[in-house]
Amino acid sequence: MRSELSRLLLASAALSHLACPSRSSPVPLGDGGVPRQILVTGTDAVGLSSLAVGPSGALFTMTERVPLLIELSPSGAAARQTLVSGAPEGLDFESLAWLSGDTFVIGTEGGCSKTGADRILLAEREGDAARVKRTLDVPLQDWDTKCDEGHGIEGLCAASGRIVVAIENALKGEGSKRYAPIERIDPETGDRAAFRLALTSTKDEKGKISGLDCRARGDDLIEVLAVERHFAVSRILSFVLPTKGPGASAPIEPRVLVDLAPFSNDGKRNFEGIVWKDDAHALLIVDNQYGEKVSGPNELLEVTLPAP
Fold first, then answer.
1. Alpha-carbon span 42 to 58, nearest angstrom
2. Which residue among 180, 252, 263, 267 is least packed, with the fewest CB closer than 10 Å?
């Protein structure tokens, strides 16, 4: 009976995937396979808003409202929880990446009114504690726009000693075209390069980048995995950036890898972070808090990526 039920559930998932594409429907390179849910256990935290791979391949996440760094085991159990001190007041913690050693970078929202820029925090974990050591401001004048309190750094990743930032404010282009501001930062020298990533969703769908992961592709390129998401759209994208050199005004056209809409529970699953598990799979984390409302469990979702 149990094996028959499992077979029916898998068949249902496959059929729903065929039936429920996002409305703008760019053809993805893969179908995501049969997703695997991993429940996050061992923590009372809610609103997990980021995902990163840290030292020794461990998974890390943070809560949006409280500066709590949570290390997760492969099974989803919280192995270690570390409060991050020294963060400026009034910030939400939207994205996370591991830079090197015990240093993490945290993308935030809510600091615009004080600095005129979005802010990145560089925090160092020391034993059972962690503390913000530096801040980096990310002004938006390179894209001829301004930050606001309701949007921030939703995507953040690091590779080859560089930080890659995705800012939530969508830029308007000609006609229906929309772009995400992307910046590459060298945290040692302060060198910056600005790019524009073409979004695949329509103006009505309002998709924005909500998560990034990076890895080096040789010495010259950084390969980026991204989530484009809003209530009516959810997709995994990929693109590349140069490791060095100036930015570019010409938009970057991403590859659409997987349409996540069939796995989004009618938009209720809010995918807020993504990492490569391996070359063939990605892990996504679900933010289960919207405003003051909490719905559904803390969970990770493993999906299959198409072959390169």
1. 16
2. 267
User: Structural domain of residue 16, as residue ranges?
Assistant: 2-304
Alpha-carbon span 246 to 191, nearest angstrom? 9
CATH assignment of the domain containing 47: 2.115.10
Scanning the structure block, which residue is given the tokens 């919280």?
Answer: 78
**Could you give the maximum distance between any two Cα atoms of the chain, in Å?**
62
pLDDT digits (tens, 9 = 90+) for 85-98: 999 999 999 999 99
Structural domain count, the chain? 1
pLDDT (mean) for 46-72: 95
Higher-confidence position of 22 and 56 = 56
Q: What is the pLDDT of residues 121-139, one digit of tens each?
A: 999 999 889 999 999 999 9
**Sheet containing 59-62, strands listed edge to edge, beginning at the edge strand earlier in sequence:** 52-53, 59-62, 68-72, 78-85, 129-138, 118-126, 103-109, 92-100
